[in-house]
Design goal:
4 strands, about 70% helix, disordered N terminus, mainly alpha, about 1300 residues, two-stranded antiparallel ribbon
């Protein structure tokens, strides 16, 4: 019989007997395999295989049968060799297992092959059934289980992953069966104990019961010993520390199931700690398995008290994973665990509330998981009551008729008819529960980060049972009808209407306006403050103000203007002309593939975003009566009106006719028109414009409603035009009148003071009067602009009247306030460009993309627009806002109008266009303003991060000192002296930390803190940057301006400066599609760009903060890396750039921050090609030895030479040296570059040992220098050979000429003279 060895000590391996390893015989065919493996790896009668093996164990030789099991394990694990039966029988287990344990690792083995499904299934069933079949016989013979468990323990330390896998998998199946056997034995033991307690006389039955009790108890102890000592402690504890993450995660789920199945022995802190360790695992699989296992444990409420120590120890880690784990699937599982623990009151309310805010994350999985948590915490109890009420009604009144009203209350159940009293009672109960749910959501939303936007909350709850609440349209109607009797303020009413609007939009499958830029910034800031780990958070929200929004549909020329997706109207109802046809014909040769991809994507989007018309009809039938009344009631509340008007966007107009409610249609249009003319809020105006387009111009208006729709639009337009026409502004005195009056008064100081105060008051009164008169004009122009984007109001009189406002005056009277004047110019110019585009697309036939060359109306409109833009852009004193709008609007209009314009007699009409110099001048001005803000924004964000890091360090230092002081106080004091030492030591730690913190805080200067306090973020910056960059890309694409280094430099510089990710992506995509064709021009652009950004990095505003300057050079490095990888296409560009800046360094050795520039050149040198490297070496620039940065110059030269060596080697690496990846790094100015400190040597070391250098390091350096010198000589010889070949060619070409004298090489001539 084989000897067992429980421990794997070195003593076992040093015995006299050595294992005899028998290799598998190698043949040309398949390897010889055991009968057991051959049977189980394919479909077979597993029960017969088990019976045959049991017969061999009982009737023949048990040892050989167990040996067969082990050989079967080895073959499943892909072992290279196996052990003979003699070795198994004679040697100890620890010695015999060495040949298997020490085999080299391999990823391929039979059980690990995903295609071997039959083998995997039969393997698991075999080991599970072998214990089940023998549980009343040989399982208790004290040999089979002991021997198998000992071998599994030894195999769990194998180096080959396949052996560890099969051993663990077999142990899992055996453990599952053993736990079932232990439970049965414990039940039998309890029964026997009760029976024995009932026996009072000393009888044979009592003796038999005692014998049975003793036998069962011994068997139970034996099984528990194998289970706990052999398997749990021997096999599974080592698996939790395995080097492979899949092995660490393999037994977690079964482990948790076993704990619940046999808690009397397994539910303890010693076993639970392994799961807690895996919560901090760096790999995803173990972390996710641990979370899933804990979900199993906490789902059983019977053992929550036993889990309390584990909960107190690891609950903060669970919350941390749920809130900020970088893997969405793990975060989702952790949120589910938080939901389970929250239902058991095991977590703090603040932690649960923090996890609930994850509904704002724009990843659907995490948002839905957070919605499930919110539903279980706030809505589950009331929803259960509603479901119970409906189920009781169905069960009690199954024979009655169906109730229509109750059926509408629940879509999933069919209620039977009840009498009127019962219907009212049930309806009131359901209504009360729904109202409770609504109040709970309002209370929760009021505590969140963004309390005024409930769309994400509705979306996250949509996949739960909370959907039944949001689509209960009769409840919403009943609630709104009785809204006046409820004690609800305006803010709550706005939230309720937003809930309803979001529910309708999601129900009909429409997109929605999610966040505004301030909300995005607030949300990102909250996320950064509450994230306590360094892992990447699943939240992906842009902080520069970019978002996916649903805005008004732009007119033909304004598709690009706002950079947004128009998702408000249904795709089949969008009737405004688009510019895709024009662009496809204009750039057909260049963008044909891109247009095909875009069209394919648009078709897919239309299919996925189609509006559900059946739900629209249901919504129309529910709200068709109440909506006009609510609009009249809340016409002064803009938030309520906006949400209610959004509902009307999805009305099906046929329902007005079928329900004979045409009067409600007229009432709705009147209410909307009244709100449109009276309310000035821009978002409300845009919402009304889109809604009116769906109600009036969707192509499906019934004939019975056409008269009312045309009359409503005409009345609205006429009222707005009359407002503009009848507006009168009083003539204001010139701005110099107050100054002249002050100069004329010089009698006394008192008179001057009184006169100046009176003049100031007069000016303020005049400005207030002007603002009150101009505001209606600005509001009316904005409303007309919004309507013109949806409807065609092409009329010569209207266009001429609007054009009069484009100079910033009202009825010929100039506006003195700059902001009001700019608003008038912007809105009127936008209206005029919209009218031009409507006229253009109306004049173009459907088949031929051209207009009548003599169409004077369109040409005149374009001429007026162009002349107005030129006159505005030539003015250097206009604001940045106005310049940006005029430039982007005109380029956008011209990009669509130019092909049509080229087909007309443009020269006859002498239509002037802005010159290239004017456009370049405005581009430079616009970019200078944007760059200034970008730089300030980057500095402010950097200072904020500095403050956050300082606060974290301060908090960490405080906690550290508290822990040390607590540890010192906890120790038993040996006397008064030791206590004083502990106290003084803790005080010293605290004082040292406070000193370090004060030194770090001094790095943030008062000027930077003042900048941080005074900085006001521009919420429109991200959108404005996208518009500007898109416009400039169109300028280059359509050749409106010539390609210049200044233009490309300004555009490329935004990659490192702009904080708008969308803007950066637009630039990268543009240069990927349209690379620079000329190599010389490309080199000039790169040189100009590096010069410009170097100047930016050494500006006074940047250099005032050394850390921020280092941060800017890091951005400079990223820009250069992108230039090398994606922008530079010509091989000689990099060499020219390096030579240019080396010459610059030679001429300007004292240039500021020259060291960082040379570091960049070193990085660029590592990217040179073989040919460019050789050319650079030929024309190497010589620096003197006393050059300030000669070390960096030598480093650049060595880098290029080393790069050349690598390129010359066929394998890509030099002989004798390793290929080193070049990285571009900058040394932070706050950290001085000091040599590494060597560990202080012991005083026992002799002086000879101290003076002895590191021989290995010195030998390596010497070999490296010799190899580098040898490669240099090879390069020089190659260069010399190239020169000799050129001379030989000259000789060969000039042999016939008697006048030609062959030149002698200078080196050879020198040798001959010597």
């Amino acid at each position: 019989m084989a000897k067992s060895s429980k421990t794997r000590s070195p003593e076992n391996t040093e015995e006299n007997t050595t294992p005899i390893i028998k290799k598998k015989p190698v043949s040309k065919g398949k390897k010889k395999q055991s009968e057991l493996f051959e049977s189980i790896k394919k479909k077979c009668n597993l029960q017969r295989v088990l019976d045959d093996w049991i017969d061999r164990y009982t009737d023949q030789d048990p040892e050989k049968a167990v040996w067969e099991l082990l050989v079967f394990l080895f073959e499943c694990g892909g072992a290279d060799t196996t052990i003979t039966f003699k070795d198994f029988k004679d040697l100890d287990i620890g010695v015999a297992a060495i040949s298997i344990v020490e085999q080299s690792d391999s990823q391929n083995y039979p059980l690990g092959n995903k295609r071997s499904k039959i083998l995997i299934e039969n393997f698991n069933e075999f080991w599970r059934e072998i214990v089940e079949k023998c549980k009343k016989s040989i399982i208790f013979d004290n040999y089979l289980l002991d021997m198998v468990a000992l071998w599994l323990h030894e195999l769990s330390f194998a180096a080959k992953r396949g052996i560890r896998h099969v051993a663990t998998q077999a142990a899992i199946q055996i453990t599952s069966s053993l736990i079932s056997i232990c439970n049965d034995l414990r039940k039998d033991l309890n029964v026997t104990t009760r029976q024995l307690a009932g026996e009072t006389k000393n009888s044979s039955r009592q003796k038999q019961l005692k014998d049975n009790q003793l036998q069962t108890s011994n068997r139970l102890k034996s099984m528990e010993s194998i289970l706990i000592v052999r398997l749990f402690t021997g096999v599974f504890s080592s698996r939790f520390k395995d080097s492979l993450p899949e092995m660490r995660a393999l037994c977690v789920i079964p482990y948790c199931n076993w704990i619940l199945e046999y808690p009397i022995q397994l539910l303890n802190h010693q076993n639970l700690k392994f799961i807690g360790w895996l919560l901090g695992d760096h790999s995803n699989e173990p972390r996710q398995a641990a979370i899933s296992g804990l979900c199993i444990l906490y789902s059983n409420e019977n053992y929550i008290n036993q889990l309390d120590p584990f909960t107190q120890c690891f609950k903060h880690r669970i919350v941390e994973i749920a809130f900020s784990d970088k893997t969405p699937s793990i975060a989702v599982e952790a949120i589910r665990l938080v939901s389970i623990m929250s239902g058991l009151d095991l977590l703090d309310e603040s932690d649960v509330q923090k996890i609930c805010t994850l509904y704002l994350v724009d990843q659907p999985e995490i948002s839905k998981a957070a919605g499930g948590l919110i539903f279980s915490k706030y809505l589950l109890s009331t929803q259960t009551k509603i479901d119970t009420t409906l189920a009781n009604i169905i069960n009690s009144t199954s024979s009655a008729s169906t109730s229509t009203h109750a059926r509408k209350k629940s879509k999933t159940t069919n209620l039977t008819d009840l009498d009127e009293q019962q219907q009212q009672q049930i309806s009131s109960q359901i209504y009360h529960h729904r109202e409770t749910q609504l109040n709970a959501l309002l209370e929760f939303l009021d505590k969140t980060v963004i309390p005024d936007e409930p769309y994400y909350l509705v979306q996250s709850l949509w996949s739960t049972n909370g959907k039944s609440f949001f689509i209960d349209w009769p409840f919403w109607v009943d609630y709104l009808e009785s809204i006046e009797s409820k004690n609800i303020n305006d803010k709550q009413m706005g939230m309720i209407c937003k809930f309803l609007s979001a529910s309708i939009r999601i129900a009909v499958n429409d997109k929605v306006n999610i966040f505004t830029p301030p909300q995005l910034h607030h949300l990102a800031q909250y996320r950064a403050e509450h994230s306590s780990t360094s892992t990447t958070t699943p939240m992906t929200i842009n902080t520069d103000g970019e978002m996916e929004v649903t805005t008004t549909q732009q007119a033909p020329a304004a598709t690009k203007r706002r950079g947004r997706k128009s998702a408000a109207p249904p795709p089949q109802q969008q009737k405004s002309p688009s510019k895709s046809k024009h662009q496809n014909e204009e750039v057909e040769d260049n963008d044909e593939e891109d247009d095909e991809e875009t069209n394919g994507q648009q078709e897919n989007d239309e299919k996925s975003d189609s509006i559900n018309e059946s739900i629209c009809r249901e919504i129309t039938g529910q709200f068709i009566v109440i909506l006009p009344e609510l609009l009249v009631l809340y016409r002064a509340n803009t938030i309520v009106c906006q949400s209610l008007i959004e509902i009307a966007r999805y009305f099906v107009l046929d329902c007005y006719v079928t329900l004979r409610l045409q009067s409600k249609y007229t009432a709705l249009l009147e209410a909307i028109g009244d709100i449109f003319t009276s309310q000035p809020k821009t978002q409300l105006i845009d919402t009304i414009s889109v809604t009116l387009e769906n109600l009036l111009n969707n192509g499906k208006t019934p004939s019975q409603l056409e008269t009312a729709s045309k009359a409503a639009l005409h009345n609205l337009f006429t009222e707005l035009i009359d407002t503009l026409r009848l507006t009168k502004i009083s003539q204001q005195p010139p701005q110099q009148s107050s100054q002249q009056s002050q100069d004329s008064i010089a009698n006394s100081q008192d008179q001057q003071t009184s006169s100046s105060q009176s003049d100031t008051n007069n000016n303020n009164n005049n400005n207030n009067n002007e603002e009150s008169q101009v505001f209606p004009v600005i509001s009316t122009l904005y409303k007309l602009d919004s309507l013109c984007k949806q409807f065609n109001f092409s009329d010569e009189k209207f266009a001429s009247m609007i054009f009069k406002f484009t100079d910033g005056s009202v009825n010929g009277i100039p506006i003195q306030t700059i902001d009001d004047s700019d608003s008038i110019i912007i809105h009127s110019t936008s209206i005029y460009s919209q009218l031009l585009m409507w006229s253009l697309f109306s004049a173009i036939p459907s088949k031929f993309y051209q207009i009548d060359p003599m169409n004077v109306n369109i040409l005149q409109m374009f001429y007026l627009l162009s002349s107005r833009v030129i006159s505005t852009l030539k003015n250097d004193e206009i604001t940045h806002r106005l310049r940006h709008f005029m430039f982007t609007t005109f380029i956008e209009t011209r990009s669509l109008f130019s092909p049509v314009l080229n087909l007309t007699n443009m020269t006859v009409y002498d239509i002037s266009l802005p010159s290239e110099n004017l456009l370049l001048k405005n581009i430079s001005s616009l970019f200078s303003q944007e760059n200034e803000y970008s730089l300030t924004y980057l500095k402010v964000e950097f200072i904020k991060n500095q403050q956050i890091n300082l606060e974290k360090k301060k908090l960490a230092g405080t906690n550290k000192s508290k822990r040390k002081s607590g540890a010192g106080a906890g120790k038993k004091s040996t006397g008064a002296t030791s206590e004083e030492d502990i106290t003084s030591h803790s005080e010293k730690e605290t004082s040292d930390h406070e000193t370090d913190t004060n030194q770090q805080q001094q790095k943030i200067k008062e000027v930077d803190l003042q900048l941080l306090n005074d900085f006001i973020p521009d919420q429109q910056f991200g959108e404005r940057a996208v518009e500007l960059i898109t416009t400039i890309c169109n300028c280059i694409k359509y050749s409106f301006v010539t390609q210049s280094t200044q233009l490309f430099r300004s555009l490329l510089k935004q990659i490192a400066l702009s904080s708008s990710k969308r803007a950066v992506d637009i630039i990268r995509d543009f240069f990927r599609k349209y690379p620079i064709q000329s190599g010389k021009f490309e080199m000039e652009v790169v040189i100009d760009l590096i010069n410009s950004f170097q100047s930016t990095c050494i500006k006074e505003d940047v250099a005032s903060n050394a850390d921020f300057q280092h941060h800017m050079f890091s951005r400079f490095r990223s820009l250069c890396q992108w230039l090398v990888t994606d922008f530079i296409k010509h091989p000689d560009t990099l060499r020219g750039v390096i030579e240019h800046f080396l010459n610059y360094a030679l001429k300007n050795p004292q240039a500021e921050k020259l060291e960082e520039l040379l570091e960049i050149l070193d990085f660029l040198g590592s990217k040179l090609s073989e040919k460019s490297s050789i050319e650079f070496i030929k024309k190497r620039i010589i620096f003197s030895d006393d050059f300030q940065h000669i070390d960096l110059i030598n480093k650049i030269n060595n880098t290029i030479e080393f790069q050349t060596i690598q390129n010359l080697e066929p394998s890509g690496r030099a002989s004798g040296g390793k290929k080193v990846k070049q990285q571009l790094k900058f040394v932070s100015p706050t950290k001085k570059t000091t040599p590494k400190k060597r560990r202080r040597k012991s005083s026992k070391v002799s002086e000879s040992e101290e003076s002895e250098p590191d021989s290995e390091e010195s030998d390596y350096e010497e070999d490296r220098r010799e190899e580098l010198q040898r490669q240099k000589n090879i390069i020089k010889d190659q260069i010399q050979n190239d020169e000799d070949e050129e001379i030989e060619e000259q000789r060969a070409s000039s042999e016939d000429s008697s006048d030609f004298e062959v030149p002698i090489d200078s080196k050879k001539k020198l040798k001959t003279t010597n």
